[in-house]
Amino acid sequence: MKDETLRLRDGRELAYVEYGDPDGSPVMLFHGNPSSRLSWGLIPGSPFRPHLRLIAPDRPGFGRSDFQPGRQLLDWSDDVSELADALGLNRFAVLGVSGGGPATLACARQIPERLAAVGIVSSPCPTDVPGVTDKMSRTNRTLFFLARHAPSLIRLNMALLAYLARRDRLVERLVYKMADVDKLKAERPEIRGYLATGFAEALRQGGAGSAHELVINHGRPWGFALEDIEIGVHLWQGEEDPSVPPAMGRYLAQAIPNCKATFIPGAGHLWIVDHVGEVLDALVPEHEDD
Questions:
Q1: What is the pLDDT confidence band of residue 13, given thresholds at 50, 70 and 90?
Q2: Which of 34, 56, 120, 159 is the most exposed place for a label (fewest CB within 10 A)?
Q3: C-beta separation of 283 from 95 below 8 A
Q4: 9 occurs within a structural domain
Q5: How far apart (Å, rounded) are the C-alpha atoms in residues 154 and 208?
């Protein structure tokens, strides 16, 4: 693992980790919310493939990346482009999980010429779409409502979660609200470690970065139409996911013009931890060049 920071043009520091084969085809991995660059290296069995160079940045305010006041969803593509330039990457794939999905789609809209492939797993869609939150967990539905109507309460909530994460009490609080299939996964010690480390690192600066992203992803317009995404998008969505209900995946699959969607029966929000290898193999087959 290679843990680095990049000084961006505006003076902010962007933290990122590299995993896998330094000579492999590059894939940028975008974490969920709350999570961080370190989570990918803790996935049981490791997601590393001999033909892939995996680059996992922290978004602003997460982990060791500086907070960016006033950030909008589309701004992430600028940071991604700067990171790619610094690493000498012309084209690369992107994969976003859960709350990293909107950031991935923003890149698909803004910098399609640089993307070799695009994948999203358990990604939310814009929450102003009628019906997509009907089968969402009460916790997430409340968070998304507050993101739109009371962002100051979101900041207080995430500050509390940061406090709990520092005391290793956040996993219990969040897991009991998950689907039964995810609760079973979370009983495995390696999954608990994956979640606990991801949460603690994500919220090490406090909850401001996480709160701000909840607001821009779920409380404001995204700033682009899904129908304007020209590049193909691979989508994976569990059918038993109350955190991001399958209705959200179906909306994305319908709205994005060239979307190859896979809906997984019986799968919850943590499906990815046991299947990241096959997702990466589908996104960037081994025979492909950089």
A1: very high
A2: 159
A3: yes
A4: yes
A5: 9
Contact 51, 286 (CB under 8 A): yes
The CATH number of the domain holding residue 130 is 3.40.50.1820
How many folded domains does the chain comprise?
1
3-class secondary-structure state, position 46: coil
Residue 200 and residue 66: Cα distance in Å, rounded?
A: 16
Could you please report the per-residue DSSP string of 156-213? HHHHHHHHHHHTT-HHHHHHTTS-HHHHHHHTSHHHHHHHHHHHHHHTTT-SHHHHHH
Map residue 36 onto helix, strand or coil.
coil
What is the radius of gyration, based on Cα positions, of the chain? 17
Residue 288 pLDDT grade (very low, low, confident, very high; cuts 50, 70, 90): low
In a domain, 287, yes or no: no
Write the CA distances from 73 to 79, 193, 206, 213, integer angstroms.
Answer: 11, 29, 20, 8
Q: How many CB atoms lie within 10 A of CB 147?
A: 22
On whether the pTM is more than 0.90, the answer is yes
Which structural domain range is residue 136 located in? 1-281
The predicted-structure confidence for 129-159, as pLDDT tens digits, reads as follows 999 999 999 989 999 999 999 999 999 999 9
Identity at 87, one-letter amino acid code: L
Residue 20 lies in a domain: yes
Q: Which residues pair with 15 in a beta bridge?
A: 5
Cα distances (angstroms) measured from residue 183 to each of 173, 176, 178, 192 = 12, 7, 6, 10
**91: helix, strand or coil:** coil
Q: Are strands 52-57 and 115-121 parallel, antiparallel or unpaired?
A: unpaired
